[in-house]
Design a protein that fits this description.
single chain; about 375 residues; alpha+beta; Rossmann fold; D-amino Acid Aminotransferase, Chain A, domain 1; 8-stranded antiparallel sheet; 4-stranded parallel sheet; 10 helices; about 25% strand; globular
Length: about 375
Amino acid sequence: MSQPKKIAIIGASYLQLPVVEKANELGIETHCFAYLEGAVCKEHCSEFHPISILEKEEILNVCRSLKIDGVLSIASDLAVVTVNYVAHHLGLIGNDLESTEITTNKYKMKQVLKKENLPTSSFEIVKDESDLKHLDNFNYPLIVKPVDRSGSMGVTKIESEAELHDAYEIALAASLCKEVIIEEFITGNELSVESISQNGVHRILAYTDKVTTGAPNFVELEHHQPADISDEARARVNRIVISSLDVLGVSDGAAHSELFVTSQGELYVNEIGARMGGDFIGSHLVVLSTGFDFLEAVIRVALGVEITYEYPKKKNSGVIFKNDLNSDEFDLVSDSSDFVIELESGLSEKRSFLKSGDRGNYFIYQSDKRVNFE
């Protein structure tokens, strides 16, 4: 009897739990790497390795000794670097190191998109506070954020130069590489696109509408599939996303693309992550709305197994986080509705947020129509 395949999963928080459980279901041996604190996957994986996801060399050595067959992570930009580093050195499936550097650095990403004439907002890198004096060509409002973080961490919208210094300090504190990017603010609806790539061929899976707290921090409160966009807009989104994935060098695995759609129908690429969307978008909503098993697909890609595409469902799905604006409706719907697939009601009751990590209770739904709070 052949031995089960082994995969390394970089990260062990609740974000990685769905892919651990899917791999277990498929009979695959799972090895999780992360700090012990918050490692909920520890009790679910075949073996837990208490090593920081940033310790690339140490993880590589362990994976080499284990003869790992594939390496992956979902919903974590920080983990993507280690995933592709290990894959590169072990000859496994992954995106190349140049693509990894570009897709985990917002400034380098926008440089490539601009060079290839793909639509994105005006931007500038700030490596030192003195660079703030050279922003005369920008029109306010602006978005200030670290080049290398996600989950709304360190993000601020500012309306005037008087707010620039404080926003810069917030972004700088959040940045691991101590670099900040400043972008002109695009007014429009936010849309995200989930896709998967194998051997350089890209397949669009789902479109997601996003609801945020708005300025100044834009913490995400709701995600709904399918997005409310026209067929014509969807076709343009597809062209832009696929072209962006090509020029960014994304060849294998999941991708999460974020775009703005203006009232005039213009499209702008905000960011593209070479991983699933967080907030349960990739791990839960895609399969609930389309029937396509996104989790199994990313595992198959990592192991070099061909993906088959089937879409047996056409439903609405979404995730809604409890906050000051929806508190009463949230409790009413989550307590009595048969369309609620998963409910987390035991977390923090803090309902004002500066970043995604401040959120607590949520529910995930699947329904014949979108769940909207009036």
